[in-house]
Amino acid sequence: MSWLPSLITNTPEDGYELAIKLSRMAVKKTQPDDAVRERLRPDYANNADSLTRASQVVATNFQTVVQANDCWRVRD
Amino acid sequence: MSWLPSLITNTPEDGYELAIKLSRMAVKKTQPDDAVRERLRPDYANNADSLTRASQVVATNFQTVVQANDCWRVRD
Amino acid sequence: MSWLPSLITNTPEDGYELAIKLSRMAVKKTQPDDAVRERLRPDYANNADSLTRASQVVATNFQTVVQANDCWRVRD
Amino acid sequence: MSWLPSLITNTPEDGYELAIKLSRMAVKKTQPDDAVRERLRPDYANNADSLTRASQVVATNFQTVVQANDCWRVRD
Amino acid sequence: MSWLPSLITNTPEDGYELAIKLSRMAVKKTQPDDAVRERLRPDYANNADSLTRASQVVATNFQTVVQANDCWRVRD
Amino acid sequence: MSWLPSLITNTPEDGYELAIKLSRMAVKKTQPDDAVRERLRPDYANNADSLTRASQVVATNFQTVVQANDCWRVRD
Asked: Interface pTM (ipTM) of the complex?
């Protein structure tokens, strides 16, 4: 099964989780070695600027997901 | 209850606050340890470039919130 | 009164000023201490890359303001 | 044949792969020497911030691909 | 007279020039001292990454200008 | 003749080339001296993060070009 069967989610919160997933997947595609990614984790999880950069990527992907879901307007 | 029940806010100012919330949540999801985030706070709160980077994330999320609220047009 | 009663401005120039205000507000929300922000000012006001980063934030917020004002089309 | 015959893809996952391709192509156009790019690979594949930056580029290109595919709405 | 009377330009090239103007104005608003900005110029004009960052700001502002001009569609 | 007579291109690949041209032109406008730009070239062409930053600018400009061409939809 696809890791990304659809951009549609039921709720904004689920959409935000999808944005996080999209952000991590690009990292995984660039560095497929799980052990290396795990080793790098403290480098950014304990660095303020790295966390802000990660938040920037999520913000960009969240824009995409929100648009795909038409802002969940009909569900509000 | 969801931390993000909706992207709709009553006012632009509330929308801006939501953008800040969205920006911080990605940090929290990447570094869930409250104590670590608290310890990192001085690193960026006292660094001009870090504050600018944080402002960039808020700007991106604010774009999303503004679009979801259709620029609060009907309320103006 | 709200610091952001509306995203609507009379002119593009006013819209640009609003974009600057939005950019600074995120910094203020992250570092509310006026004295600290004042102390940090020379760090970025005298650094070329810092100024470029600040300009990037303004550009992003200006996109938002322009969209909210429908590019001031009817007023042109 | 063109390396980019179309922005249309069958699925979101294929669209994500296209976003990665678009991200890498700009690098290739700037540094066409395969050997140099190969030599640089460990520099970013083992650096947390570099991976986040790469993810940011993919996020931006994915926005473009999603829009071109109208969010795959009719196919959902 | 306003430095930004309108976002409308006659041609794409004029629009690009306006994007550059918008990018520089944010720097000027942050660092109004002409002499300081002049002194900083070599710092970024001779640094590859600084030039790329400057190009990023122009790209963002150009998006805005292009949208305001509806891509100059009726004029093509 | 203008270096940017139109944002319209025949194909997505041509649009991508235009995005690269737009990205480079901002650098050229900031640093007009060909010799300096040539001297700076190894600085970014041999640096992984610099190449990623360059790719980010292209991605942003490509968004603009894709939108101007309405995603080449009628031509697909």
From this structure: 0.95
| Dihedral angle over CA of C8, C11, C13, C17, nearest 10 | -20
pLDDT band at A25 (very low <50, low <70, confident <90, very high): very high
Nearest in space to B18 (alpha carbons), one of B74, B75, B53, B69:
B69
**D-F interface (Cβ pairs under 8 Å ≥ 3):** yes
Cβ neighbours of D56 in F, within 8 Å: 56
Mean pLDDT (whole number) for E1-26: 97
Closest residue in C to E26 (Cα) is C55
CA distances from D2 to A55, D18, E7 (A): 35, 14, 36
pLDDT of residue E1: 87
Three-state DSSP string of chain F: CCCCCCCCCCCHHHHHHHHHHHHHHHHHHHCCCHHHHHHHHHHHHCCHHHHHHHHHHHHHHHHHHHHHCHHHHHHC
Using CA atoms, how far apart are residues F15 and F71, in angstroms rounded to an integer? 10
Q: CA-nearest residue of chain F to D4?
A: F13
Q: What are the chain A neighbours of B27 within 8 Å (beta carbons)? A: 51-52, 54-55
Query: Can you tell me the mean pLDDT for A24-37?
Result: 98
What would the two tokens of residue A27 be?
Answer: 């990292």
Question: Which subunits have 3 or more CB–CB pairs within 8 Å of chain D?
Answer: A, F
- Residue B6: closest CA among chain A residues belongs to which residue? A12
Mean pLDDT of all residues belonging to chain E = 95
